[in-house]
Amino acid sequence: MTVIEEVRETFRNVPKGSEFTTSQIKEMVNKKFGRTYGSVIPSDYCYNMTNKGKIGSLENFNIFIQKRRGLFEYVGENYRY
């Protein structure tokens, strides 16, 4: 399962407009998939791997928008700015 699929599955039933810190997002994904804290691949790595065609596409995968440093709002999949 790719990181994108894990995030999608983790936030599937979360109400739109919910806000999370970076730590909370990582904690939720880690808990759901039974990993220790800190084992989620950093987003810049995922972006670079996606650009190299290794893990799929981030196109149309805008499920968070940054509200301020370290705080994100869940907007659902395929959100358009």
> If you average the pLDDT, what whole number results?
75
**What structural class is derived from the secondary structure elements?**
alpha+beta
Classify the helix fraction into a percent range: 25-40%
What order do the SSEs take from the amino end to the carboxyl end, as H and E?
HEHHEE
Count of individual domains: 1
**Which segments are poorly predicted (pLDDT under 50) over 5 or more consecutive residues?**
44-55
Task: Please report the total strand number as a whole number.
Answer: 3
Which strand order spans the largest sheet, edge to edge or round the barrel? 1-3-2
Q: How widely separated are the two ends?
A: 27 Å
The share of residues in extended strands comes to 5-15%
Overall shape: globular
**Gyration radius, rounded:** 12 Å
Largest sheet: 3 strands, antiparallel
Our count of helices gives 3
Structure in words:
The protein is built from 3 helices and 3 strands. With 81 residues, it is an alpha+beta fold. The chain has a 3-stranded antiparallel β-sheet with strand order 1-3-2. Mean pLDDT is 75; it is low at 44-55.
Which key terms come to mind for this protein?
81 residues; three-stranded antiparallel β-sheet; 3 strands; 15% strand; globular
Walk me through the topology.
Elements: H1 3-10, E1 19-21, H2 22-32, H3 43-51, E2 64-68, E3 71-74
Antiparallel strand pairs: 1-3, 2-3
Short description:
By secondary structure, the protein is α+β, with helices and mostly antiparallel strands. The protein has three helices and three strands; from the N terminus they run αβααββ.
